[in-house]
Amino acid sequence: MSKDNSSRSKFYLDLDNKWTAHNYKPILVVIKKAKGIWVWDVDGKKYMDCLSAYSSQNFGHGNPKLVNALKKQLDKVILTSRAFCNDAMGTAAKKLCELTGYETLLPMNTGTEAVESALKIARKWGYEKKGVGKDKAEIIVCENNFHGRTITIVGFSTDPDTYTGFGPKTPGFKVIPYGDAEALEKAITKNTVAFMFEPIQGEAGVLIPPEGYIKKVQNICKESNVILIADEIQTGFYRTGELLACQYESVKPDMTLVAKAVGGGVFPVSGVLSSREIMAVLTPGSHGSTWGGNSAGMAVLEAVCDLLVEEDFSQKSKDLGKYFMDGLKEIQKKYPEKIKEVRGRGLLVALELSEKARPYTEALMNNSPIGVLAKETHEFSIRFAPPLVITKKEIQWALSIIDKVFAEVN
Ligand SMILES: *Cc1c(COP(=O)(O)O)cnc(C)c1O
């Protein structure tokens, strides 16, 4: 880091280093304040946030409508547990279901929990509705998947950094190539209960499947009586231009998993969306979460749904995403030996480099007087996913900094 050693940042980085687990390799910026697309570090330097907490901040840091909804709720009641009922959960669930076209919501807190919940529902559905033999249920997932960090989920990851040291793997999962509908057809057996996939693989570096893939996998699942589960935790809520990325192919999966943006960047909220019929396998006592459906999170969820109705994020994400990608393609033409590919959909965009990405993300951060915060995914790609409230002019500025950094870094 090219920061002076006496800076305040250094003080906090040393604290982190000494007192917390080293399970991340963050960009070394210590943020103390954020508003919209901008964040400020403890030394007062300003940066554009081009990561949005992995799409959690789709509506901008500290979005006033969402912060106010949370503040209002905090003064009333925050958490009762599901031992009792509250006046926020049903209201929010109705709005989210009506918005997404689903019949029912299982509210949870983090993305990982939504994924785990869906896997449990799929297995139970397999035994009770499909007639799969005891403990024989199989779930199919894709190579390069990212679905979270629990012991079961990392067991079907194909990324050694994610699974190494955490065995034995939970049985009952099969991994097939991403974007290959035929591979799914071949992998399905009479014991297959579900196929879970990301409509665009975000953590893998914004990998987009071939046109028609989502429709094909839906048809294959329908024919074989297999539940289709879309993990929209990163792609949902207009990040890729549509409310849900599966809507690009007019597909409504049997289950959709939401988190990140659904908490508006102000509170952890996640959920499983599905039909009443599938969700009915969950009976009292079979699943739960102390914080799932809490009043604070549900008040935020309701406000997020209202925001999505009031403001047009779709056109913004599509138009600005195209503008951003066109600009990046111009930059690619100038540095073809450094940039292999520009890809993306909506405002989920990535550069694939022919060399390591870290020097570029660090140079973007160090740009003076205003930095750009982006993060490499794996070693060779950089993801750009600014809050959807960004403007064309601000993207233009970001492009000029990206251009400058590619000219300077060797
Ligand atoms: C972030 C993410 C998760 C996990 O969500 P957490 O809230 O970190 O547990 C799962 N799936 C996808 C696609 C994600 O991007």
Instruction: Give the count of structural domains.
Output: 2
Ligands? pyridoxal-5'-phosphate
Return residue spans where pLDDT drops below 50 for at least 5 consecutive residues: none
| Mean pLDDT metric | 97
Shape category: globular
CATH domain topology of the largest domain = Aspartate Aminotransferase, domain 2
Work out the radius of gyration: 21 Å
The fraction of residues in strands falls at 15-25%
Instruction: Tell me which oligomeric state these chains represent.
Output: single chain
Helix proportion range: 25-40%
Distance between the termini: 16 Å
- Please identify the top-level CATH class of the largest domain: Alpha Beta
Strand order of the largest sheet: 4-10-9-8-7-5-6
Number of strands: 15
CATH superfamily of the largest domain: Type I PLP-dependent aspartate aminotransferase-like (Major domain)
Q: Would you list the SSEs in sequence order as H and E?
A: HEEEHHHEHEHHEHEHEEEHHHEEHEEEH
- CATH architecture label of the largest domain: 3-Layer(aba) Sandwich
Structure commentary:
The structure is a single chain. The protein is of the alpha/beta class and 410 residues long. The chain is built from 14 helices and 15 strands. The chain has helices at 8-19, 52-55, 64-74, 89-100, 111-130, 151-155, 160-163, 181-187, 213-223, 276-279, 295-310, 313-334, 358-366, 392-408, and strands at 31-35, 38-41, 46-49, 104-108, 138-142, 173-176, 192-197, 227-231, 255-258, 270-274, 339-345, 348-353, 370-373, 375-377, 381-384. It has a 7-stranded mixed sheet with strand order 4-10-9-8-7-5-6, sandwiched between helices. A 4-stranded mixed sheet has the order 1-2-3-13. Helix 3 packs antiparallel against helix 11 (295-310), helix 4 packs parallel to helix 11 (295-310) and helix 12 packs parallel to helix 14. It is globular and about 60 Å long. The structure holds pyridoxal-5'-phosphate (PLP). Pyridoxal-5'-phosphate (PLP) binds next to helix 5.
